[in-house]
Amino acid sequence: MDADVEEAALEQVAALLQRPDQLEKLPELKKRADRKKLAVEAMLRTGVQGQLEGIRTAIAHLQTASEDVTAISQGVADIRERLKPFPQLKEKLRELRDANARHGQYAAAMENLKHIFNLQATLQEIRDALDDDKSGGNLLLAHKHIMDLERARDELLAEVHKMNETNTEKEQNLLVNFFKGVDVVVAELSKNMWFILGRTLEMVKGNEQGGGPQQVVTCLRIVEREERIDNFYMDARSKNSSAFVPPGRPRNWKEKALRSLEKTVVNRVDGNQLEDRSLNKAWLARYLEVCRNVIMDDLQSAKVAIPCFPPDWQIYDRYVNMYHSAVCRKLREVASDRLEKSELVQLMSWIKFYASEDMLGHPKLKINAQAILQDSPVLTRSTLNSLCDQFVEMSREDLKLWLKNTVSHETLDWNKNVRPSEDNHGYFYTDLPNTVFGMLKDTVTLAKEVSVEVIPSIINLTIQEFHELAGKYRDAFTAYKTDYFAERGRFQEFTSNIIAVANNLHTCIESTEKYKQQIRLSMEGEQNSATSMPTPLSAGRRTAVSQQQLIENMDALNLKWSNAASVAINYLREEVIMDIAPSLAELFSKKWLIGSAAPETICMTISDYYHDHKHLRPVTRSALLMDLQFRIVSEYLKAIETKRLTFTSYEERATAGKQMKSDVARLDHLYAEFASSDDMADQLPLLTSIISAAGEVISLKDKSLLSLEATSFARKFPNCPAELLAAILATRDDVGRSDARSLADEVLQHVQFHPKDQIFDQLFALRQQESSEWLPSIGMANVFKSDFISRLKRDN
């Protein structure tokens, strides 16, 4: 160790004296080392001295402790010596101890002799006090006497309990039987108290005779006394399992008092149902309204009663929970029965109203209604889903019946030959659209009363029923049309009725489109809302439906309405075509060439019918007039293709061309009059230009210019079939069939990429239909369907 110290010292010196010039500081370094050495030695001396002082103190304490232990041991030995005679002394004093116990029993008996000898008189005083209580008497006095008697009984029983002898049970039974009258008056007292507490709210309001709130406070004071007595004996029993507890304890009067209050609440909720469905159809609405009034009135009274009750009872919160529990139990019982639709709506509406500011959420009540309903909802989620599904099914049955009756009523009106009503614009209509969509509006309004979650399901089932309605409506006016064409003189108002049908269907399309737009806007609003949830619609409900599905179903419904509207237009067209069929058959024929009234007859007939057709809405009227134009123009094309007329000279061709131009001018003038109506807005494109163009080709005198004329025709109508153009060319007396086909193919080849008018595609397709009488087919009713819907959307 010395070597290590020496080595460390050498290293330290070497570190201090690394350069020759540092030797000059050697004396200073020595002084510094000496001072440091002296300081360390002083510190060591101080530390050693402190340790020595501590050791001296510890030795002194040890010496004192040793002396104390010796003294204590001697004292304990003396005590043990003095206690040795005590066991013998206990045995010698046994008789004295027994005498003392008997003296204690006798003393207790002596102290309670007054109560023992006056027991019956005291019991009678208690009964008198209880009887007087009906007129505002003395519950406290009765309880005081009862406590005196119980104290006497319990002291005697406690002394018997201390004896711990085998025959004490007999003595206990003797005392219990002697004081059994006390239990009777206790029962009477409790009965009176529960009667008073059961009418707490009435007494607080001053509606009961007697002491009013004072009686309630008296009962509560007695309950609190009894609770303290119960707690005293229960605490003693918890500390010592063999401690004495009087018979009948604990009485738990606080719990019984609360049960009495709860029983009253249940009776207040249940007892207000004085009717059922057999006595009054509105029984549930009346009952729920009475419940609302009772609950609001009682809860306000409960706030007034707060000062009467001890704070730890939290009586107002208890009343709120008791009323809520009673309402939940009663409404769940009601919901478990088979309810009618109106009852179901009343129930669900009342449940929604239950937490509003007009009831539990009323500012005066200061109740956190949402928290209560979150912890304990009035109806379980499964029950709510079941009720919503029931409402949907009931609504479906009602809609089926209403819609069936609506169609039946419409059919009866047709058979009455009564002209339909006109709106402000002069359009025929019936009440069917308003009735049908009024049903939807009313049903949705009811659905809002039930739950907003059920609205999509209601709209969806309504759409489904409207699908069936559209089919039944179509079948009904189809049967009406069949009867009419079988005996046209029987139904004078057929045309006006079918016009009203077409207008009704147009209105249905508009209404459906409006509902669809509302749903789409609702969807966009939910998507843009940061807090919106993806269409929940009650998970677990079997009738739930997504909003996207609603949009798709409405599109399908609009297509169904459109189909039915097209059929109605078709029947109107069929009526006209039936009248002008003979004239159509004369077009582009020998009779027509030499001078026929067929074109004028056609125009006059259409004009006559227009007096009724002007009562159509513009879109449907446009569809009808365009379809008639299709039929007339296609009849010319059909006549040309079937070679109804062949020419033998230029003069005949020139006459035909002139007649075709005249017919076109007459038709154009007629349709110009139709289009000039204020509500048409030029919605009638003309197709007659193809007749004029065909007339130009037919009447051309210079054959050398025929190719140029055919090319001009093809440029105007690039989608013209080659067969049709070849037929037009072949009607000339100077062109053969093969040459006509070759020329047609050649000129159409040059214009195959020119823009085509789709309306002429429909015209060229129509000309190929086979029909001996040229009556319109129902299949062609869809010719304008796409235009019909697009125009309707544009108009809206």
Automatic annotation (TrEMBL):
GO biological process: exocytosis
GO cellular component: exocyst
Keywords: Coiled coil, Exocytosis, Transport
Coiled-coil intervals, chain numbering: 146-173
Family matches, as InterPro entries: EXOC3/Sec6, EXOC3/Sec6_C
Pfam families: Sec6
Highest taxon of source: Eukaryota
Family: Belongs to the SEC6 family.
Name used for this protein in its record: Exocyst complex component Sec6
Record organism: Caenorhabditis briggsae
Lineage of source species: Eukaryota, Metazoa, Ecdysozoa, Nematoda, Chromadorea
